[in-house]
Amino acid sequence: MFELNVEKLLIELETDQISISQYTKNHELSLNKDITLDEIRKGMFKSLEVMRDSTSKGMNEPINSVSGLTGSDSYKYTEYIKSGKSICGDVVSFAMAMALSCSEVNASMNRIVACPTAGSCGIVPAAILSTAKKYNKTDDEIIDALFTAGGIGLIIGAKASLSGAEGGCQAECGSAAAMGAAAIVELMGGTPKMAFHAAAIALKNILGLVCDPVAGLVEIPCIKRNASGTVNAITCADLALSGVESYIPFGEVVDAMYDIGKNMSVELRETALGGLAVTPTGIALKKKVLNKN
Ligand code: SF4
Predict the structure, then answer these.
(1) What is the pTM of this model?
(2) Separation CA 200–CA 109 (nearest Å)
(3) What is residue 19's predicted lDDT score, i.e. its pLDDT?
(4) To the nearest whole number, what is the mean pLDDT of the chain?
(5) In 10 A of CB 136, how many CB atoms?
(6) What are phi and psi of 211, to 5 degrees?
(7) How far is the CA of 277 from the centre of ligand 1 (A)?
(8) What domains appear along the chain, each with residue ranges and CATH number?
């Protein structure tokens, strides 16, 4: 059983001197006695390849959504980066372009890895791959970082929720940011304690975020929330790596997120009956999509 008490889990990791990724891999092995570590890693490598494709496609060519509502932002932003005008540094600017690309690939009904969900699919890959690119990390190191992200997602999913319909966007983009933040910490050589602090800070930053997709489509505001969620992950990892800690421990932040989600009205949990979905523009865009079909 995966230890869901984060305080106990941290003691176990520190006592055994293992990383979150190692613990997560051990857990996977314990679930299926017929599978080998090599097979598990190969499975994650396949996901990594999909992540690489989906995070780069929109940077190289304009991608439009099936609904016609959104698209081409990753391409537009990549051209802007190339012009040298971006005010963000390399890691953050490319991470945002990657996250936009992945979300646009999702909205165009092409292949992504739902990590933890399709709506938040850009955050974990963009956070990890942009950092890995900057610091020349190997595929093996990236795969381990993905297992770290998986471990964090497993805790949130078991203790709370990863679903916008259940917990609002905080449960999707917030969880993805927490997963990405912890993964970067491990990728950069930080400790499990630092990784949990990074995850806690990232999730705290987005508590209360509602799920209010225009026309019920995973496009507005989802695509840009992937860019901001990625920045959240990177900045929180950086804070934690510097020694900054979350005053509220990760496990308690997850509990708080779940409580907040349960207190959200149904209008703000993926029903498209509240928030941005019912603004005058949101309603007009919905009509446009309906008339198109
Ligand atoms: S707004 Fe809702 S559908 Fe969109 S990414 Fe957030 S949780 Fe998912």
Answers:
(1) 0.97
(2) 32
(3) 98
(4) 97
(5) 7
(6) -105, 110
(7) 11
(8) 6-292 (1.10.4100)
Res 292: pLDDT: 74
Q: Which residue has the tokens 């959200």?
A: 264
Q: Ligand 1 test: best mutation among 69, 124, 222, most atoms within 8 Å of CB?
A: 222
Residue 201, amino acid: I
DSSP conformation class of 113: -
Which pLDDT belongs to residue 293?
61
Please answer whether residues 142 and 132 qualify as being in contact, where contact means their C-beta atoms are separated by less than 8 angstroms: yes
For residues 280-293, give the mean pLDDT.
Answer: 91
Residue 232 clears pLDDT 90, i.e. is over it: yes
Q: Ligand 1: distance of its center to the CA of 249 in Å?
A: 25
- The closest of 277, 54, 226, 92 to 63, measured between CA atoms, is 54
Which atom of ligand 1 is found nearest the CA of 213? 1
- Ligand 1, residues at Cβ distance < 6 Å: 119-120, 164, 169, 172-173, 211-213, 218, 221-222, 225, 270
CA–CA distance, 136 with 248 (Å, rounded to integer):
33
Give, in order, the Cα–Cα distances in Å from 129 to each of 43, 61, 113, 159, 181: 18, 19, 14, 27, 12
CA distances from 38 to 17, 34, 35, 149, 182 (A): 22, 12, 8, 19, 23
Q: In this structure, are residues 171 and 257 in contact, taking their beta carbons and an 8 Å threshold?
A: yes
